[in-house]
Amino acid sequence: MLAGLILTLSLAVSGVVFAQPTTNRPWAYQLLHDSELTDDCPICGRPTIQIPMAGSFDLRLIESNPAFARYALENISFKGEGPRTYIVHGSGTFQIGGEVALTQTMSLQLQIDDGVSNRLCYFTNASPIVNRPPPMIDVSLNQTNGTFTQTYSLRLAAAPLREIWFSTKTFFSASNESGGLAFVEGGDLISNSGRIVKRNGELFSSVGIHVPAPDLGLDAVDMLPGGEIAFSLGSSAPSDTLGPIHHGDLLSTQRGILRRNEELLAAFMVQLPAPDVGLDAVHILHSGEIYFSIQTNIFSERLGTNLHRGDLLSSTGLVVRSHQQMLGQFHPVQPTNDYGLDAIYVWPGGEIWFSTEDDFQDQQLGVISSGDLLSDQGYVVLRQAELLAAFAPTQNPPAFGLDALYVVTDAAPIAPPPRLSIQAKPATHSIGLMWQGQGRVFQVERASLVTGPFAPLSPVLPDLSYDDLNALTNRISSYYRLRQW
Fold first, then answer.
1. Which residue, among 57, 32, 36, 60, has the nearest Cα to 48 in the 3D structure?
2. Are the CB atoms for 89 and 65 separated by under 8 Å?
3. Buried-most residue among 182, 243, 290, 413 (CB within 10 A)?
């Protein structure tokens, strides 16, 4: 019936809350904004070259005990571009722990090609001090086998992320498409890998909105179990099935309206009739509690104070973080100003990534734009240009804002195995894979042998199905497995 194809399913899942990479399931890490390579010549007097680096590596557990955990860094692949292009590959080890104080040790063996020389370089960290709480990594390393004419040093700032999904406030043109430009709407859900995850029209049509405009904006997003997308729109619009939809309502691709704006604010006891004050950021906890921000200040009778657009609020009626506390680790020139809160992602360990609605000047970091991704620990995760680098936007510098945010990470709670069905589609010569489960996002992998190696077949998806096109035409044995986060 399946024309000789052999199909099988295996489930691969990664990470649990407050857990760590395992021996057989490493976590994928990406470099963040502060990562850089320094190329110095101690005796020749040439200017020191400092190059920002981007790239990735895998972190796999080797050994763990109550005192420390030791990991392998594998598949290191970094690139830095400046006066020269530096290509870096290699491996290493990382240890973190301590009975009295938390310390870290990293050793790397890296092949560095600068276009002139290609050398094997050894590195170890300069200080054992842990600057960013796990699972984030921030380590400065010095080369131990440098020469008088060339010695490298590195700073690795990294987070366990596979992709960052987000939206921009305004549209832009991407030049990464072969054969022309791609037009990205401000309300499209996009990935820092350079692809469109969901068009804005796919989102608003899921709640019965059918309007001529291709873009109603995307102010907030979160992924829920079962591939459900929670979101809010930037504009109000009528729904054929749900009636008026307001820009402050929290919507769902599967359940229509999750919360009306007045329901989100109900625990704060705002004066009735409660106006729609917008919805700028959303993160839904496992308990069902909703963290969110608003676009317009409003008075809470329960708290006896104004709720500000830069505050992180809870559906239980509490201010989780005031706008001053959100920026407490930064140093704004005007510290009393409210710069708004446009997007949030809350890590399992409690660290919050976010963006502000307005630009501001930081006394140490310089200009912070509304398109930059920040951490409540006081550092820039990624500048907007770094978030959008894979799209190669034609506008330079990019200044499109950052409106919605979700992080695909291995440091996510584990979900029960999904149920998957496989069906031949002779009309399209394809194999259809469909699943039901409690994962938030999914990826189909395929191999020609049951023992692997398995390679990604689909991108990371917030969907419950995927077609392996032309699989029946090729008439080869294929083994499938499904990953979920």
1. 36
2. no
3. 290
Structure tokens at 76: 């290191």
Query: How far apart are alpha carbons 411 and 141 in whole angstroms?
Result: 25
Q: State how beta strands 49-64 and 218-224 pair.
A: unpaired
Predicted structure pTM score: 0.92
Fill in the DSSP letter of residue 261.
H
Closest C-alpha to 294, from 336, 342, 252: 342
Contacts of 249 (CB under 8 A, 6+ apart): 232, 233, 257, 259, 260, 261, 276, 279
Beta carbons of 160 and 410 less than 8 angstroms apart: yes
Q: 54 near 31, Cβ under 8 Å?
A: yes
Amino acid in position 101: A
CA dist., res. 444 & res. 460, Å (int): 8
Phi, psi of 358 (to 5 degrees): -115, 150
Query: How does DSSP classify residue 138?
Result: E
Task: Kindly list the distances between the CA atom of residue 431 and the CA atoms of 205, 443, 461, 463, 464, in Å, as whole numbers in the listed order.
Answer: 27, 15, 17, 16, 14
Cβ neighbors of 257 (< 8 A, separation 6 or more) are: 207, 242, 245, 249, 250, 251
Q: What are phi and psi of 389, to 5 degrees?
A: -55, -40
* 205: three-class secondary structure by DSSP: helix
Domains detected in the chain: 27-159 (2.40.160), 164-408 (no CATH), 414-484 (2.60.40.10)
Confidence of residue 101 (pLDDT cuts 50, 70, 90): confident
pLDDT per position as a tens digit, 135-187? 999 999 999 999 999 999 999 999 999 999 999 999 999 998 765 678 999 99
